[in-house]
Write a structure and sequence with these properties.
- The chain is mainly α.
- It is about 55% helix and about 5% strand.
- It is built from 16 helices and 5 strands.
- It has helices at about 5-15, 35-50, 60-65, 75, 80-90, 105-115, 120-125, 130-135, 145-150, 150-160, 175-190, 230-240, 260-270, 270-285, 290-315, 320-345, and strands at about 25-30, 55-60, 95-100, 165, 200.
- The strands form 2 sheets. Strands 1-2-3 form a 3-stranded parallel β-sheet. It has a two-stranded parallel ribbon with strand order 4-5.
- α5 (about 80-90) crosses α15 (about 290-315), α6 packs parallel to α16 (about 320-345) and α13 (about 260-270) crosses α15 (about 290-315).
- It starts with a helix and ends in a 6-residue tail after the last helix.
- Bound molecules: adenosine-5'-triphosphate (ATP) and magnesium ion.
- Magnesium ion binds near residues 30 and 218.
Length: about 350
């Protein structure tokens, strides 16, 4: 980044000149790896659009990343700037969106502690997303306490910014339900509306499957196409993509449902009429997997090439990434401290 541009960015990042807009957006990602196509269609693309209309904060959730990586904290620390570079490469503008780091905002940990008195263990154990994750991570009874309670920490993140809109993938819906339960309990104790309830903002593709079609695309499961994937990796992933196992010869009729290649074409191809024609041909017989995969590969290469190139520039300027994150984090502290003050006072803890 050129010097004068860098100075202007720094000044703007430290100013508190956001307009007073009613709806506030808070969303975030665990710092457990670089971002993938699921993030892009599930939430990131939406955030890029929304930043022009709303006051938006994006949280790099490093503390939440530790909840299943306590034994391997380096996985989290080494991915913080990767996530920030992915945001910028995808089009998040730090002059419009506040990008902040969860561990740099102590009020979030304090709020988590207060809220944890409002939620029972059995309620946490009923959370369907957490249930699935516990199973896939084979925790058994050795589940870290932080992992079981991470929905509470997420409630702290959302409420600390009084967010009303949360652009998320489908897996996060139970977290927002849990958040709103906490909001209602806290407001009941306070006998006034200190906190606000939030609404999810789901996109057209709110659960992108993994390349093998077995689960959702997920950073932690190594089943993803990353925004930073090389041309070669994209080609390899598309080649290995799950289709219809019974579609053996080109002339055989093929199944669209559960066919990951078509799910991705639905999610990423610009011309949906063209995709509808492909589906009709494939179902009738006469269209080979190789041809459809080639079309998908081209579409993903076109989408990811400019993102990958921008990302390379951002990742090369580490100090700029840190400056953006630090400025956003500092700007978020006052706001969350004020919510913490109100929550403490709802519990009568306001002697000084
Ligand atoms: P991890 O495996 O570490 O949990 P993840 O890939 O699930 O990582 P998160 O950081 O947990 O990513 O999720 C960040 C946001 O991206 C959430 O809003 C989540 O709903 C959304 N998201 C993640 N994976 C997908 C997906 N496959 N499809 C749509 N949205 C997704
Ligand atoms: Mg996740």
């Amino acid at each position: 980044m050129k010097n004068n541009q860098s100075i202007a960015l720094n000044q703007a990042l430290h100013s508190n000149s956001k307009t007073d807009i009613k709806e506030k957006i808070l969303t975030g990602d665990r710092a457990t790896g670089s971002l993938h196509l699921g993030h892009y269609v599930g939430s990131l693309q939406k955030r890029v659009k929304l930043q022009h209309q709303y006051e938006q904060t994006i949280l790099v959730a490093d503390m939440q990343g530790l909840t299943d990586n306590g034994h391997n904290p380096q996985k989290v620390s080494s991915n913080i700037l990767n996530v920030v570079a992915d945001y910028l490469a995808a089009g998040i503008d730090p002059l419009k969106t506040t990008i902040c780091l969860q561990s740099g905002i102590p009020a979030l940990a304090e709020l988590t502690m207060y809220y944890s008195n409002l939620v029972s263990i059995s309620r946490l154990e009923r959370n369907p997303t957490v249930k699935t994750e516990i199973k896939s991570k084979s925790f058994g009874r050795s589940i870290p306490a932080g992992f079981l309670t991470y929905p509470i920490s997420q409630a702290a993140d959302i409420t600390a910014f009084k967010a009303t809109l949360v652009p998320v993938g489908e897996d996060q819906l139970p977290m927002l339900e849990q958040t709103n339960e906490i909001v209602r309990r806290l407001n009941h104790i306070a006998q006034q509306d200190i906190l606000v309830e939030c609404k999810p903002l789901l996109s057209k593709v709110s659960r992108l499957p993994s390349v093998d079609g077995k689960s959702k695309m997920s950073k932690s499961m190594g089943n993803s196409i990353m925004l930073s994937s090389s041309e070669k990796d994209i080609r390899k992933a598309v080649k290995a993509m799950y289709t219809d196992p019974n579609h053996l010869r080109v002339c055989d009729p093929g199944k669209i449902e559960g066919n990951v290649v078509f799910t991705y074409l639905d999610a990423f191809h610009q011309d949906q009429n063209y995709v509808a024609n492909l589906k009709a041909q494939y179902s009738a017989g006469g269209l080979g997997d190789g041809t459809v995969k080639k079309i998908l590969e081209e579409c993903l290469q076109d989408l990811l090439k400019p993102i990958r190139q921008r990302r390379e520039e951002f990742i090369a300027d580490r100090s700029q990434l840190i400056a953006i994150l630090k400025a956003g984090t500092e700007r978020s502290q006052d706001e969350s401290n004020e919510v913490l003050r109100q929550v403490k006072s709802a519990f009568g803890l306001n002697l000084f």
